[in-house]
Amino acid sequence: MMGVRFSGIILATAAALATAGLAQVRQEQPRSALAGHNTNAPVDVTSDRIEVQDRADRAVFSGNVHVIQADMTLDTQRLTVAYSGGQGANGLQINRLDAAGGVVVHSPSETAKGDFGVYDLDRKLITLIGNVQLTRENNLVSGSRLVIDLNSGRAVVDGGPPGVNSSGGRVTGHFTVPQQSQQSK
What is the CATH number of the domain that holds 108? Predict the structure, then answer.
């Protein structure tokens, strides 16, 4: 999806420059958190309650959970943080975040929603499952599952089996078209 959009932007820009014969000022698109997100940035979590299960190497946050990593946020009702390490020079290392109770991942240019979510920090993948929506400006893609690869910026939406969600097992999309002014003849 991202490759097609990027290729389309390049072709459209080249065609516009060739047709017009003049260089026009390009407006920068909002930076996408899908590519170039700083996955090494600290993860800050706030919630109404925390339960540390040290023997299981996890912490469970519940109630109005808000997570911030660089310029990306995650909001949910319940978050399980799996970690490794402990005392020593490196301290705790967060490996995975499991979110439940409605999940919203927000970046400067996109918002993704789903029923459940997994952020695998080791593999740099965000997966949302159930009633998934990915929104950028006025464009919307819906499906059953969304996988975002933070290394490549690639996002894949699957429709899932028929009858499982409101899309009937298919991916649906609504895309806006740039409005061109109509010239009177």
Answer: 2.60.450.10
Dihedral sign of CA atoms 136, 139, 141, 142 in order: positive
* DSSP code of residue 13: H
**Cβ–Cβ under 8 Å, residues 58 and 93:** no
Residue 3 placed within a domain: no
Taking residue 81's Cβ as centre, other Cβ atoms within 10 Å add up to 24
Q: Is 82 domain-assigned?
A: yes
For 141-145, which contacts have Cβ atoms below 8 Å and span 24 or more sequence positions? 141/1, 141/171, 141/172, 141/173, 142/166, 142/167, 142/171, 142/172, 142/173, 143/167, 143/170, 143/171, 143/172, 144/169, 145/114
| Domain total of the chain | 1
DSSP string, 120-165: ETTTTEEEEEEEEEEEETTEEEEEEEEEEETTTTEEEEE--STTSS
Predicted confidence (pLDDT) per residue in 7-65, tens digit = 343 333 333 333 333 333 334 444 455 677 888 999 999 999 999 999 999 999 999 99
Stated pTM of the model: 0.75
**Is the confidence at residue 77, as pLDDT, over 50?**
yes
| Whole-number pLDDT of residue 4 | 41
